[in-house]
Structures are given as structure tokens and as C-alpha cells.
């Protein structure tokens, strides 16, 4: 069964193509989640508002909107930071072992970690999506006023981070699909070999 | 290659065990997401508050908290409803075809749909988690007051729906893992057969 050793012939080529596709997708996912983390972590806007006038002297207050003010944003930074580390670790792992990664327990653990990462990052991105919607439009039922009219750049930066995070989820999903497709293809390939 | 036909011998038994495991997990996921959908869709609380007293006559207002008041809750109901339909469809599909489901494009499509469902439901559950946190504690930075002190049952019911949804995600993840494990196991099994 020369098939098992890999590295030569049609199967060898295909596995390299798969490995390179995986690495490219992982790097893209890494960049997207890293961007989301940094953009959100640097999100801070300070504005000065005139609240009243005594004589000719305007009374001003200075307010700062920071990402830490909303728990959902903190979770977003942590989730995307962990997703970035996850991509980095998986990339490092693909250099450590040059044998076929679809064997053994490792494939299952990697797939599970990918899936949990997708779920957590998707949760974080959707949470800030709805927090952003609330900040933009307010909620009259709960008497929560909109704040984005005063902190426009802050809100836009949050939206940018959200977008980067969703792009990261897309790449993480592609990683998972390519992984599973390769396992299936290998399965079918064995059928051909052994037929 | 009698292996391909399945249904007899060790492999046949294993495939049935896998099919039954999958069905049980899908039914559990279905119940969890259906519970989340119904509990949230029925979430409504009406309370009467005394706001002032004129002479001996108290002035009362009646306020109603409905799930539709918060966009995140609406998305939650839709996401969990779609996940329930997804589980139902996948269960129906597993009755339609008695051949091994790990073959062909179908496996990839089902895995992808499972993954997208996990991401969407996880997003919805996390969004209402943070909305619930906001309703319970308020956010002094944004001057959003807590509302759960006035609508305690409403908030508790929302938390219950969230919990059911997270349990549903857990089962959907197990479905995905069992699916991939079975594909891998079949792969290894073929190695044994053809060695």
C-alpha cells in the first residue's frame, strides 16, 4: 500500500495543494480576526459638548466612549484575539508535522477547535451587531437613547471591526469545509486505488 | 469489494449505530431549539406601576414588555426557528435514503448547513445574552437604565430561552462531530479491509 506514504504521484500533489490552500485560508482568517481585535481594542472617542451657557461662558463637558464601556465589546476583543491565536497555532502545527494531517485524533481535535472558534466569534460579532444597532437607533420601549449621533467615529470603527470579524468567520468556515472535503476526497481516492 | 454495499457484518452494524446516534442527537437539538423558539416567542409581561398620587387617587401606568421590542430577540426567534426546521429536514432526509449518507455531495452540504446553523444560532444566543445583561444591569456609560427590576419574569423567560438555545448548539456540534468521526472511522476501516 504505497498510498499510505504519500508525497509522490497524484495523491502527493493533491495533498500539497490541499496543505497550501489550508495555509492561505488560515492566514486570511488570521488577518481578518487580528484586524477585528486591533480595530476594536483601539476604539475610543472623546468629544466635548456644550451643555449650557451662563452669561457668555459656555459650560462644556467632555465625554469619552471607550470599547470597554460595553461588555459585548470586551467579549468581542477576547473572542477575536483567541481566534487569531488559534489560527496562529494551527499554522505553526502545519509546519511541525509534514505527514498527512487527516490521520489520527489530531484531525478531529482541530475540526472541533475550528468549530468552537466559529461559534464563539460568530456570537461575539452578532452581539456587537445588535449593540451597534441599539447605539445607532436607540430603543424607545426600554427608553435607551441612541448615542451614535454624539460618537459617530466610535460607532463606525465598531462596525468596521464587526465586518472584519464576519470575514474572519467566512474564512474559518472555508477552512473547515476544505478540511472535510479533503477527508472525503481521500476516502473516495482510496476506493479507486483499492478497487 | 463487499465493503461498499454495507448493511452486513461489522461495518453494517456500526453504520446503524451511527445512524441511530445521529437521529437521537438531531431530535435532542430539535427539541432544544424548538423550546428556545417557543419560550422566546411567548415572552410578554404586562405590569402596572403607580407613578404619582393626586389626593388619594394613585395614577397608574401599564407597561408591556414584549420580545418584539428588541431586534435581537426577533433574530433569536427566527434563528432558532430555522434551526428547528433544519433539524426536522435532516431527520426527514435520514429516513428517505437508507444508503450510507457519507457518500457524495450530500455529506458536504449537510455538514455545511450544520455549521452555518451553529454559527447563526450561536450569534443569536450570544446577542440576547448581552442584551439580557444590559437589561439586568443597565449601562451607566451610555445612560441606559436597567429594566429587569420592573420586568423580572420577562427577563427570566428570556434567560431560559437563551439556555435552551445554547443546549441546542451543543447538540448541533455533537451532530457535526459524530458525522466527521464516522467519516474518519470509515476511512480507517477501509485501510484495515484493504491492507
UniProtKB/TrEMBL annotation, chains A, B:
Topological type in the membrane: Multi-pass membrane protein
Keyword set includes Transport: no
Keyword Transmembrane helix recorded: yes
Cell compartment(s), UniProt: Cell membrane
Start and end residues of each Casparian strip membrane protein domain: 18-170
GO cellular component: plasma membrane
Entry's transmembrane regions: 20-42, 74-95, 107-131, 163-181
Keywords: Cell membrane, Membrane, Transmembrane, Transmembrane helix
Top-level lineage group: Eukaryota
NCBIfam families: A_tha_TIGR01569
Family note: Belongs to the Casparian strip membrane proteins (CASP) family.
Description of how the protein assembles with itself and partners: Homodimer and heterodimers.
Name of the featured protein: CASP-like protein
Amino acid at each position: 500500500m504505497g498510498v499510505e506514504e504519500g508525497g509522490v504521484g497524484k495523491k502527493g500533489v493533491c495533498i500539497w495543494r490541499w496543505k497550501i490552500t489550508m495555509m492561505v485560508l488560515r492566514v486570511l482568517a488570521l488577518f481578518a480576526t487580528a484586524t477585528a481585535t486591533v480595530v476594536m481594542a483601539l476604539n475610543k472617542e472623546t468629544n466635548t459638548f456644550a451643555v449650557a451657557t451662563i452669561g457668555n461662558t459656555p459650560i462644556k463637558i467632555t465625554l469619552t466612549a471607550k470599547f470597554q464601556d460595553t461588555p459585548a465589546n470586551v467579549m468581542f476583543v477576547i473572542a477575536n484575539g483567541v481566534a487569531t491565536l488559534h489560527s496562529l497555532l494551527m499554522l505553526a502545527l502545519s509546519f511541525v508535522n509534514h505527514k498527512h494531517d487527516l490521520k489520527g485524533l489530531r484531525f478531529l481535535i482541530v475540526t472541533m477547535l475550528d468549530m468552537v472558534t466559529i461559534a464563539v466569534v460568530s456570537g461575539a460579532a452578532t452581539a456587537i451587531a445588535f449593540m451597534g444597532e441599539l447605539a445607532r437607533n436607540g430603543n424607545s420601549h426600554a427608553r435607551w437613547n441612541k448615542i451614535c449621533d454624539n460618537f459617530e467615529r466610535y460607532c463606525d470603527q465598531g462596525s468596521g471591526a464587526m465586518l472584519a470579524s464576519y470575514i474572519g468567520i467566512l474564512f474559518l468556515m472555508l477552512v473547515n469545509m476544505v478540511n472535510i472535503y479533503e477527508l472525503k476526497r481521500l476516502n473516495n481516492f482510496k476506493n479507486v486505488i483499492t478497487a
